[in-house]
Amino acid sequence: MAEGEFEIIARYFSRSSADRDVLVGIGDDAAVVQASGALAVAVDTLVEDVHFPLGLPAEAVGYRVLAVNLSDMAAMAAQPRWCTLALTLPEPDDSWLQGFADGLFGLADRHSVSLIGGDLTRGPLTVSLQIFGTLNPAAMLTRGGGHVGDDIYVTGTLGDSAAGLMLIKEGAGNKGPEHAALQERFLWPEARVIAGRALGPIASAGIDISDGLLADLGHLCHASGCGASVDVERLPLSAELLSVCPPTIAEAYALSGGDDYELCFTAAPSQAQTVEAVLAGVGCPARRIGRLVGGSGVECRRDGEVFDPVSSGYQHFR
User: Fold this and answer.
1) In this predicted model, what pLDDT tens digit does every residue of 1-60 receive, in sequence order?
2) pTM as predicted
3) Residue 157 domain flag
4) Which domain holds residue 259?
5) Looking at residue 30, which CATH number applies to its domain?
6) In terms of domains, do 215 and 247 share one?
7) pLDDT reported for residue 51
8) Does one domain contain both 77 and 115?
């Protein structure tokens, strides 16, 4: 006899939490947590064949839906604590559900995040996860805190995930360590939670890079009421990306590719040494790529000359 909704929830998703602030978890009409102070709340939905390719391993789907939400917490300098999950499945599949749960809980355990509730229903494969985090309002990051003259930084390297997705869609398989590394960047993105917390007291604004640097930096500029000038020769590009793509294609991926889930943040020039020291202390590389300027929008420069990039980033309804 096939398992029903409650049996699936009990088998794959009902786990006890070591978090003493979880008063009521999975199994009741609502979860109850003991929270004091400010909360950061974010939600993301992943739809098969829109946000991830058909046939993506279930473990990667479970990992990614939490990772993209952790990245939102990182961008706000919040400490992730709890999450709820809404999972829509065409049919219950034991192997898929086990892989999904392994990916989700493997990452949740690393960040001490408790799954406290959710919903399960039938339909096209769609995964929505809502996350809750705690933060200090005096040290939180928003998109709207930037000022003209602030330096613009990005963590890690850009463009790897977009190139990895291209290789996955092309069925590139295992054609060497460079190909494998790029595909891993798409499948298993690393949210910069620790770096985000460290930057909270010193950065002026922040956003995570999900839709591409140009698009997301544009959101930060709009919220901060200023423009940005980006020196593209300063973009951090990985050796793996440059080994697979010509420099112009690598640059395009870095500017507009999306799915990197690195942090883009701003800080006053006077904070440059502090930014470097703080991020070195948590083992997170970052590079200054430009500055906030008067006006609006994001301007790209190569060797001091303005140019128009091919694409400005991912948009859901265009």
Assistant:
1) 346 777 888 887 887 778 899 999 888 889 899 988 999 999 999 998 888 888 899 999
2) 0.92
3) yes
4) 141-306
5) 3.30.1330.10
6) yes
7) 85
8) yes
In-domain check, residue 256: yes
Number of domains in the chain: 2
Looking at the structure, do residues 105 and 151 belong to the same domain, yes or no?
A: no
Supply the pLDDT for residue 311: 57
Same structural domain, 217 and 249: yes
Residues 117 and 171 placed together within one structural domain of the fold: no
Whether the CA torsion 272, 277, 281, 285 is positive or negative: it is: positive
Q: What distance in Å separates the CA atoms of residue 299 and residue 260, rounded to the nearest whole number?
A: 21
Q: Report the 10 Å Cβ neighbour count for 55.
A: 9
* pLDDT for the residue numbered 3: 64
Show the low-confidence residues of the chain (pLDDT under 70). Answer: 1-3, 172-174, 310-318
